[in-house]
Amino acid sequence: MKKRILFLISDTGGGHRSSALALAQVFSEKYNITCLLPDFFREGTKPPFRNFPDAYADITKKRNYFYGLLWYGIYPEPFYKFLNWIVDITSPNGLREFYERHYPFDCVVSCHALLNHFPLQTLRRYYHKIPFYIVVIDLLSLHTGWFERGADFYFLPIPESEFFFLKRGFPKEKLGVYGFPIRKEFFLLQNKEELKGKFGVEDKKVVLIIGGGEGIGQIKEVASSFLKKTDYQILIVTGRNEVLFKSLSETYWSERRIRVFGFVNNIYELLSISDLCITKAGSSTIMEAVAKKVPLILMNYTYGQEAGNVRWVERRGLGFYEKEPAEILIKAQRILETDLGGKIKEKMGKINLAGASERICEKIVQLLE
Questions:
Q1: What's the whole-model pTM score?
Q2: What does the UniProt keyword field contain (predicted)?
Q3: For residue 103, what pLDDT is reported?
C-alpha cells in the first residue's frame, strides 16, 4: 500500500508550511509517498484555538510585545503543559476526529513548536503504534514546545540545536542535525538576465524587501527611503497583507524602480536576481536567502520566537539587524557599495543547506521500514 505522511503545521506565519512543503516535495517525487498538510489549529481544535492562525497575523503585526509576553509566558514547562491541557479538554473530539479524518497514515511529522504535546498525547491514545517525528525549524530561540519527550526522532537544523536538546537530557540516538528543509528550487542555477526580463527589472543593483508571510514591518518607510536616496531597483513582497499590497501598488504604480508582489510561491526567483534582502527575521526566509547567497538586513522580528534568528545571523556574519530606515539604508550601502557584500556571500557559501530535505526524508523512510 502507498505510504501516507501526516504533517502537523498551521498557517501562523509562512515558515511552517514552507518547510513541510520542502519535505513533501521530496517524499512525493523521490519516494511516491502521499503527504497530507492540513492546518491543525483550523481542523483539529475548537474555538478560540481554531482562530489562532488569524489571531497570529493580527497580533504579530499590531501587538508584537503582547505576542512576546505570550511566548515567554508559556515557555516554562508547567505553563506550557497547562495551556495544552486546556486545548485538550476543550477540543477532545476535535483532536480525535482530526486524526480519524486523515487516517490511514504511516507517521506524523510536526514542523510547529506548539503542535507537539497534545497532538502526540492524542496520537498515543488512539494510534499508539504510529511514530511521531519532530522537525525543528527555529534556530537559537527554541520554545519549550520543541522539547516534547516521547517523540520517536528529532530532526535539528543546526549544531547548536543539538546542544540544547542534550542539555535537557534527550538521548543522543534520537537526535540528528540534518539541516534546514528548503525546496530544491533554491539550489537551481538560474539565468539572472532572463529573470530580470520576466519581472521587468532594470539593470541595477536589486534590493528585495520581504515582510514575511504576513507582510510585517516598516516596508513602506524603507522603500521610500531607498527610492529617494539611491538608484537601486526595489522589489517588495507584502505576503498576505492585502491592505499593504494595495497601498503600495497605488502609491508606486508609475515608478519603474519599484515592483510590488503579494504572497508568492516563487521567492527563489526574486532572490536569484537580488543583491540584498531586507526582511523580517523568519527562519525560513533567512535560510532561503542563505541558500541563494543574498546578504541580509533584518528589520524586525517576532518577539521571543525569532530573537534567536537575529543572533544567529549576526554571529555568523551573514548580515545585520537594524530597525530604523535610515540605519537600514546605511547598512545596505555598506553591503552593496563595498567588498562587504562579497565577504558575506563567502560566509553563506560555507553553510551547507543543500540536501537537507533529502536527508530528513531519507531518514524517515528508513525509520518506517
A1: 0.91
A2: Glycosyltransferase, Transferase
A3: 95
Residues 122 and 133: their CA atoms lie apart, in Å, by 14
Cis peptide before 48 (omega within 30 of 0): yes
Same fold yes or no, 4-182+354-368 and 186-349: yes
The pLDDT, as a whole number, for residue 81 is 83
Q: For the chain, give me the number of helices (H) and strands (E)? A: 17, 12
Architecture of domain 186-349: 3-Layer(aba) Sandwich (3.40)
Residue with cell 492585502: 242
Beta strands in 247-334 (DSSP E): 258-261, 276-280, 296-300, 319-321
pLDDT tens digits, 90-149? 776 778 889 999 999 999 999 999 899 889 988 998 998 999 999 999 998 899 999 999
Torsion angle of C-alpha atoms 132, 138, 139, 143, degrees rounded to 10: -80
Q: Report how far residue 298's alpha carbon sits from residue 304's, in angstroms, rounded to the nearest whole number.
A: 15
Which three three-digit cell numbers place residue 2? 502507498
CATH code given to domain 4-182+354-368 = 3.40.50.2000
